[in-house]
Amino acid sequence: VQEVMTRKVHCVLPQQTSEECMSLMTSHRIRHLPVVDAHYQLLGLISIGDIVKEIISAQQFTIQQLEHYISGERA
Predict the structure, then answer these.
(1) Which residue among 9, 29, 33, 69 sits deepest, i.e. has the most Cβ atoms within 10 Å of its Cβ?
(2) 12 alpha carbon, distance to own chain's centre
């Protein structure tokens, strides 16, 4: 495992945005990020799939809001 593992682990804090996580994952070509607190205690793990799902959901919400605005409907 030592031969193929990532030696420098990139971590994120809970308050970081999905876009920041996506940027970090893309620039370092990684698919998972540990989520840690201020004391570097592991809180969880986020995957590229989690990020993509959240970004798509946010975009769909924005599209719905714009459609309601254009049609004059109240949300």
Answers:
(1) 33
(2) 10
